[in-house]
Amino acid sequence: MDLQTLRWFLSLCDTENMRDTAAAERVNQSTVSRSLARLEADLGVELFHRHGRRLAVNRFGALFRDHARRAVGDLDAARRRIGALANPDTGLIRLGFLHSVGRWLVPELLRDYRAVTPGIRFELHQGLTRELFAWLRTGDIDAALVTPPRDDGDALWHQLRDQQLCVALAADHPLAGVPGLALRDVRGEPFIAFAQTTDMRRVIDRLCQDAGFAPVIAFESEEIATVRGLISAGLGVGILPRPAVLEHDDPVYRPLDPEQRRPIGLAWHPSPAPTAATARFIEHLRQGGGADTGMRDGTRDRGTQT
Asked: Which terminus of the chain is more solvent-facing, meaning fewer CB atoms within 10 Å of its CB: N or C?
């Protein structure tokens, strides 16, 4: 029993004639006859009364017809919905992103892409680096705005931006106005750090180690907004990516000396192949649709062979 068999059965219910159904479906009459015979054998009952060349639906056929119509209708509806989701003009893109890019990069990219593809829809998922790559692997999202994958990962990645890393301090901190602030200058301060589960924590630990000290952690959080708020309240200092747009309650951001930057790009999995909607979005960004003319390092791909 398959979808084509159900369609031919429903056509027979309407035409009540093998020849007419075969003509309507553009197949041989013997093909329709064999299909009906297999269907009746599968169900264990006859579905029609035979009156010469005319077929009349019996009570078993009438019962099965109701279910067949619903099944075919549901499958056709599923096909239409899948087509709409995958359509590059009107489909759905499930986009994940880091907390730190939710206020600037996500709105910018979505606004620009909707300007050229107004019918597209986005389903947004915010998460940590490890969560975003896990969701990509399991197919729960289609693409993610995230830092580069580790070398042993199989995700593809294309750089879009880089963020300047800064020492973040409360506005009234004595070092807030010091030019050329080095990370070692705050080695005696309590640190507001990202949790061990985050990608940024590894960055912070490495920078502090390179500066010759281990930070004294006062508070930890996975949320960048929480880290930012605790620093602004004067509860410690930290290392944060400088936001594209400063808010009135943001801490003071002092660039690290020497300068440190954090790349941000689009990641996706090559297998299974992205939907047409996702593939067009990826290509749009790879061709410069998400480029920032002020980005210092340009764009690059990781995970692909050139």
From this structure: C
CB atoms within 10 A of CB 296: 10
Cα Rg for the chain, rounded, in angstroms? 30
From the list 161, 160, 194, 175, the residue with the least C-alpha distance to 253 is: 175
10: tokens are 């429903």
Please state, in angstroms and rounded to a whole number, the distance separating the CA atoms of residues 257 and 275: 44
Amino acid at 230: L
Contact 267, 133 (CB under 8 A): yes
Burial 36-66 (b: 16+ CB within 10 A, else e): beebbeeeeeebbeeeeeebebeeebeebbe
Taking only the tens place, the pLDDT of each residue in 251-296 is: 999 988 788 899 999 999 988 889 999 999 999 999 987 666 444 3
CA dist., res. 301 & res. 298, Å (int): 11
d(CA 80, CA 32): 26
* Tens of pLDDT, residues 59-79: 999 999 999 999 999 998 888
By residue count, the chain amounts to 306
Name the pTM for this structure. Answer: 0.71
The SS3 assignment for 163 reads strand
Task: Give the C-alpha separation, 250 to 211, whole Å.
Answer: 25
pLDDT in tens, 157-200: 999 999 999 999 999 999 998 877 889 999 999 999 999 988 88
What local confidence, expressed as pLDDT, does residue 299 receive? 39
Would you say 86 and 132 are in contact if contact means Cβ atoms under 8 Å apart? no
226 contact partners, CB below 8 Å, separation of at least 6: none
Summarize pLDDT for 191-242 with one digit per residue, the tens.
999 999 888 899 899 999 999 999 999 999 988 889 999 999 999 999 999 8
3-state helix, strand, coil in the chain (%, to 5): 40, 25, 35
**CB-based contacts of 23, cutoff 8 Å, min separation 6:** none
